[in-house]
Amino acid sequence: MPLPTSIPSPSSGVLQLGPFPLRAYAVCIIIGVLVAVRIGQRRAEARGFSRGTVADMAVWAVPAGIVGARIYHVITSPDAYFGAGGHPLEALAVWRGGLGIWGGVLGGALAAYVFCRRTQRDFLRLADAVAPAIAVAQAIGRVGNWFNQELFGGPSTLPWAVRIDPGRDGTVPGALTYHPTFLYELLWDLAVAALCIAIDRRIRLRRGQVLALYVGLYTLGRAPIEALRVDTAHTFLGLRLNDYVSAVVLVGAIAAFLLLGRRRGAEPPAGDVPPSPGTDDDNDDDDRHDDGHDGDGYDDGPARREEPEPREVTA
């Protein structure tokens, strides 16, 4: 018998609106994107970016992130689609779940980088603004896993165990409640977002360090959660493929955080990139100004004053 305090699972992840099915997983992703854009835009504007920058970037990054996440999932779990009894066309059914976070991060980051290059914006500074927002979006997306009754852990009798219908992938005969690993990750995602924002406010970080901090913290918490999961996955030497990927990403994030923190020299100005030298600008007649900037975006120190020539004093 399920414990009275266990978490019930929705009977269905689909709500019928007349002839149209409304899938909870897709709704959670959409809500997550909208919330992330809102949070990211506020943080971006505080860094001097123009209004609408994050929304414009999301038009590039979100589709690329979803495609990348799906490709990563299919590559790391191919048997369900290309193995014995698999259905290759199911690889396109994103709305049924199955998105790999690292493929999503990579696809979205590449698209965001292209966007910043084309619009002459600082990629690292903008990535620092949206990194905590991405963690919040991930947390909201995990609610979709609850509706789909997926990404749960092994059998559990804890008060917060989740009820899973028998016969689903990973269920154990006789067990009705399991570790809600999707809930554990949801809570960790929110903690990562809060930690990134708090550290960013209290410590003077260099460009790109908030992004590296987000990746490192998320990976650090993902490892123990991954160990609890029982869904089908490829393993090597007793560890899931995601464990190896996470280990490599964690080392890379730590190295990036340390290297970015050791950079010397003035940081580029906050916000959108100023006009390039040689372009017409109503406010600037020359690339060098009296405030010590020479048009390259870096501070060259106080403007040098011209000393008057000494005058002869005659008796």
Give an overview in words.
The chain has 315 residues and is mainly alpha-helical. It has one domain (14-81, 91-261). It contains eight helices and six strands. It has helices at residues 24-46, 53-76, 79-82, 101-119, 123-148, 181-202, 209-228, 241-261; strands at 14-17, 20-23, 162-163, 177-178, 235-236, 239-240. The relative contact order is 0.12. Mean pLDDT is 81; it is low at 274-308.
Q: What fraction of residues sit in β-strands?
A: 5-15%
Strand order of the largest sheet: 1-2
Q: Count of DSSP E strands?
A: 6
The value of Rg in angstroms is 25 Å
Q: Segments where pLDDT lies below 50 for 5+ residues?
A: 274-308
Order of helices and strands: EEHHHHHEEHHEEH
Large-scale geometry:
globular
What is the structural class?
mainly alpha
